[in-house]
Amino acid sequence: MEQNFSIKNWAEDDKPREKLMLKGKAALSDAELVAILIGSGTRNETAVGLSKRILASVDNNLNALGKLSLRQLMEFKGIGEAKAISIAAALELGRRRRAEESLKLHKITSSKAVFEIMQPIIGELPHEEFWVLYLNNSNKVIHKSQLSKGGITGTIVDVRLIFKTALEHNATSVILCHNHPSGKLLASDADKDITKKLKLAGDQLDVKVLDHVIITEAGYLSFQDEGIF
Q1: Structure-model confidence comparison of residues 101 and 33, the more confident one
Q2: Pick from 78, 80, 71, 87: nearest CA to 34
Q3: What are the Cα distances from residue 131, in Å, to 145, 152, 177, 205?
């Protein structure tokens, strides 16, 4: 007789849904939470077992799991389109929640604060994006915007747009940010040239360029901290 490994037929101690209800969501492991998302495993593997196998493939790193495409998720036996979509949607909600929470860090007191605001937005992207944070005279972020998407070169930096936006929002300073998908925290010559160009333009308009922060998934490099300015 075919054995059914759906959650409702597990032993009481192995039911993630019941465990969540009895002990709270914090009591569940990552694998148990993913198991709730997918609902059931296969004939030979429980949902928790399948979830553990999926997580093991990305070294139990939820950020890495969030980067898997639907096609990659569906390569696991027992994960069809619906289950892959459930996993992708849940992880995207988590990413958006982190991005919303980062907005509470209104006042910029250090380069780390910039990292905490921008990492959820650009830290895990597979391509480069250039963003600008606009600050008031209390160093509070009053606006942020994406300037470009793709490689960082002098041709894509619209100096006029940056400072037009600054004047529209009555910003007294700006912080430049872009990500390095490679994970390398090194400032290129192009990064330095753009920073110098924008800093000179800002000085003319009395809008200071306070920093340029390079963001990766796990860290950051601040031009100000490194004395690159």
Answers
A1: 33
A2: 87
A3: 6, 11, 5, 20
Tokens standing for residue 61: 């790193």
**Which one, of 40, 74, 81, lies nearest residue 54 by Cα?**
74
pLDDT of 158 > 90? The answer is no
pLDDT at 173 over 80: yes
- List, in sequence order, the alpha helices (H) in the chain: 16-23, 30-38, 47-56, 62-66, 70-73, 81-102, 111-122, 159-168, 189-205, 223-226
* Between residues 113 and 107, the one the model is more confident about: 113
In whole angstroms, how far apart are CA 16 and each of 31, 108, 156?
9, 40, 49
**This prediction's pTM:** 0.61
* Percent of the chain as helix, strand, coil, to the nearest 5: 50, 15, 35
* Backbone angles phi and psi of 185, in degrees to 5: -100, 70
